[in-house]
């Protein structure tokens, strides 16, 4: 696609730009493989500005692979609370345990070994191997796909296996013989800060003379857009059940969505149910009790990857019956202030903030 001279020119332009313009990130302070491993897990489907405070807190609590491998899962999930995609946190802990037990506590430096770790795919493996170990291995994330598509005027968006393989091959062919970690980060950085999905800053781009989309004034048409699938809307009722200044919470079963996290009990509306009717039915089915609703506490809207939830939250007390949970791994009665020590899904965290203000 490029001759050797053009390729070297492109590599130098991008590396020079990166040295001057790269954003400060705590995991860029050194090439510690564990730091890179943690940052790449956190950066999967999450923006840098969101990740930075999580990464800094994480490193204070789990500064080494040994500390993470030996930590309680609930503690790990609490540190991840709010980042979403909680399977990443579980996989990161499992990965730390495997590294400790099978690799003498050192992150593997071979593709064969690292790709076998839980939660490590081709992109994450490439990022770790190139950034931490300077191996000549490519990366391909959404930012890189966009840069390549525009740079070479490719009708590839990586949405199919064939399209993605084409982009992997192009990125691999672009790699320099040295400073591979910086080069991979430079392409990602360019996509994140200059070659934006909408209104890219082409005048600031170090590759503007090389970019075919810019020359053709077709930047906003590359990569080709894919049709968005409309997300499902779900209505849910949840109960904050009070008893002698304590609140009932339960732990979701491992293996289900958000498994291992704590929650307030409740469930989805059935057709033509009101929020109150749903709450009474769900709590009776889940806990074997009937409720008295004191008041409607709040309504929360929260978006997940493929669905959107409207959560109707009620402050309640038990009217009759003895709690006998049937759909959770653990349950507990806790004081309001203690809620902050348990890992909850993001929507439930909003409820907790409300309760802390309510009881302040």
Average pLDDT over all residues: 92
Q: Which CATH class of the largest domain?
A: Mainly Alpha
Q: What CATH architecture of the largest domain do you see?
A: Orthogonal Bundle
Separation of the first and last Cα atoms: 64 Å
CATH topology of the largest domain: Endonuclease III, domain 1
- Based on CA atoms alone, the radius of gyration comes out at 24 Å
The biggest sheet amounts to: 7 strands, mixed
Strand tally is 7
List the secondary-structure elements in sequence, H or E: HHHHHHHHHHHHEEEEHEEEH
Plain-language structure description:
The chain is α+β, with helices and mostly antiparallel strands and 360 residues long. The protein has 2 domains: 4-221, Hypothetical protein, domain 2 (Endonuclease III, domain 1, Orthogonal Bundle); 232-358, Nucleoside Triphosphate Pyrophosphohydrolase. It is built from 14 helices and 7 strands. Strands 1, 2, 3, 4, 5, 6 and 7 form a 7-stranded mixed beta sheet that branches. A hairpin with a 3-residue loop joins strand 5 and strand 6 (307-320). Helix 8 (122-133) crosses helix 11 and helix 9 packs across helix 11 (180-193). It is elongated.
